[in-house]
Amino acid sequence: MLIAEHSRQPIAIALSEEVTSLKPLGVDIGDQQIVLWRDGDGVAHALEDRCPHRRAPLSLGCVRQDGHLQCGYHGWSFDGTGQIIDIPQIRQQAKLPAIYSAQAFPTIERDGFVFVGDAAQAAPQVNAGDTPDLPLHGTAYSPVDQARLMALLLDGPQLLIALPGIHISEYPLADPQWLDGMIVYERACRRSSGLLGGRWLNDHWRAEFPFALRFMIHPRTGFCRLVLRDGDNEAVMEAALSLVEARRGTTAIRWRARHRTKTGRRPPLSITGSPDGNAMRILPRDVSTILHEPAMAHDLPAVALTA
Predict the structure, then answer these.
(1) Res. 126: pLDDT tops 50
(2) Is residue 109 domain-shared with residue 154, that is, in the same domain?
(3) Tens digits of per-residue pLDDT, 138-175?
(4) Alpha-carbon distance 22 to 153, whole Å?
(5) Which of 12, 66, 188, 252 has minimal CB crowding within 10 Å?
(6) Average pLDDT score over the chain
(7) Domain boundary residue among 56, 89, 120?
(8) With contact defined as beta carbons under 8 Å apart, do 137 and 254 qualify?
C-alpha cells in the first residue's frame, strides 16, 4: 500500500508522542518509507525517508536546532516542504538546485495521531502542546497483514482486543451498516472475572450482556473508533485504533484510549499483535462479508477524525 493509492484518505501513521524535535522517526505504509519530525514550532512534517543525494535514510539523521531535518550521511538539510536548504559542500552564496528536494507529504495532527495523505492538506494543524482527547496509548506490531486484521476486527475482535474485566461475545447486536463511508456495528459484552472498579462491581446486572461495544471502522485507512457503553447507555470507555500496513506484510497497530468511569493509568484495553492462529482459522466469516459489498468498489469519503 502506497500513499499515492490512498491519497484521498488521511492515514494515521504515528502517535503524537512518537514524533519529536529531538530525533527523526522512521515509519512505513507498505513499502513506502516515511520520516517524521517536528520543527521549531512543534509542527509535524513528513518526507520520503530517502535523501535525494545518495538515498540514505533521513530517519538516521538528526533535527537541527532551527527545526530542519539533516541527513546523517553528508549533512544535506531539508525544510518541512522537502526543499533543500543547506549543502555543506557548497558555499553559502551558491544557489541550491531544486532538483535535490525531497518528496513531502501533507500532514495533520488530531486526536493524538499524526495523519499523512493529500486529504490532510486543507486541514488545520494542531500543535503537540494540545492535550490529547485520548491520553492513554500504545503500539503493537502484528505479523498478520492488514486486510486479515481488518476482517478479524469485524468477525472476531475478541482475538485482537482485550478489555480488562469485559468479555466480548461472538454475537453482533445487529447487522453492520455503512455510515458516511464507515462500517458501524456493535458487539454484546458482559462482565468477566477481571476488576473494572468499585462502581462497576456494585452494579446490579440487568441482563446477561449489559454492555455494548460499538465499532466505527474506516476500511480503506484502517482507522477505527470504539465506544463501550453500559446498560444505561453511558460511555465507560473510548478508544481509537489505527491499523496500517507495514513492510513485509506486517501491520502496525497504534491505539489511544480513555476511561470514563475510573481514574488511574491502567490501560483500558490491550492489543494482541499475534492472535491465535487456530482460533482465526475456525472463525466464521460473518460481519466481514460487508467488506465485499459494492460500497467498497467506489471511492469513500474522507474518514471522519472524530467519533
Answers:
(1) no
(2) no
(3) 999 999 999 999 999 999 999 999 998 888 988 888 89
(4) 35
(5) 66
(6) 82
(7) 120
(8) yes
Shared domain for 279 and 176, answered yes or no, is yes
- Which residues are within 8 A (CB) of 254 and not within 5 positions of it... i.e. 6 or more apart? 12, 14, 15, 113, 137, 138, 139, 241, 242, 244
Is residue 146, in this structure, part of any structural domain at all?
Answer: yes
Helix (H) or strand (E) holding 142: strand 136-142
Assess if residue 252 is contained within a domain: yes
Tell me the CATH number at 114: 2.102.10.10
Write down the pLDDT at residue 243. Answer: 96
| 155 and 63 in a common domain | no
216: containing domain: 136-295
What digits encode the pLDDT tens for the residues 28-81?
999 999 999 999 999 999 999 999 988 899 999 999 999 999 998 888 999 999
Task: Render pLDDT for 217-244 as a digit per residue (tens, 0 to 9).
Answer: 998 899 999 999 988 888 889 999 999 9
Q: Specify whether 192 is located in the same domain as 99.
A: no
Question: For the chain, how many structural domains are there in total?
Answer: 2
pLDDT at position 195 is: 44
- Could you tell me if residue 301 is inside a domain? no
CATH code at position 238: 3.30.530
Biggest alpha carbon–alpha carbon distance for the chain: 77
Domain end (from 120, 146, 163): 120
Residues 198 and 222 in one domain: yes
pTM over 0.85: no
